[in-house]
Write a structure and sequence with these properties.
Blueprint (H helix, E strand, L loop, with lengths): L1 H14 L1 H5 L3 H23 L3 H5 L2 E8 L5 E3 L1 H13 L13 E13 L2 E11 L12 E12 L2 E12 L7
Parallel strand pairs: 1-6
Antiparallel strand pairs: 1-2, 3-4, 4-5, 5-6
Length: about 170
């Protein structure tokens, strides 16, 4: 009988270990709120056209891929890439976001582990200027982040950005 109880206890512990030893529900809620606050602050940094603040959300070895597939590694290089774009310089063949505004419209957060989260953010962008000098009109897209929590702070390890097709009205 003792052997049965021990076996049953061990099996129960194994089956429910994620529940017993996994994420604390209140900790996950606090982290979700923190991540939502990061999304708001990220939007503000973009709309302020502040390359340093924008890059500051990334880990020092963070990775960024934009909607055209340009890949950049490193917080400093991410800042250097965005500085001319935010200042309105289109000479490098990139759009100008000097007057652009982004609106983070919807987000989904999934905790992979207690210190790793995947975040999908739908966005809308207006007032960007294409390299040929024309306003590009309303754009929408999807940002996907992999966030890492280190020493109590969430930061972007990987960001992928993609354009989405325009919404079809009436279909």
């Amino acid at each position: 009988m003792q052997k049965y109880i021990l076996t049953a206890s061990l099996m129960t512990s194994m089956l429910f270990s994620n529940y017993i030893f996994g994420q604390n529900k209140s900790e996950t809620n606090v982290d979700s709120i923190t991540i939502k606050e990061i999304v708001i602050a990220f939007e503000k940094a973009f709309n302020d056209h502040d390359a340093k603040a924008f890059a500051g959300f990334f880990l020092p070895d963070g990775e960024f891929t934009n909607v055209t597939g340009i890949y950049i590694k490193g917080q400093k290089k991410i800042e250097e890439f965005h500085r001319p774009i935010f200042s309105g310089d289109t000479s490098s063949g990139h759009s100008s976001f000097k007057n652009a505004t982004i609106k983070m419209e919807e987000q989904r957060i999934r905790f992979i582990q207690k210190d790793i989260a995947s975040v999908d953010i739908l966005w809308g962008l207006d007032h960007a200027i294409s390299p040929d000098g024309k306003e590009s009109g309303h754009r929408r897209g999807l940002i996907t982040w992999t966030l890492i929590k280190q020493r109590g702070k969430w930061s972007i390890l990987i960001m992928h950005n993609a354009n989405l097709p325009p919404l079809s009205v009436g279909k």
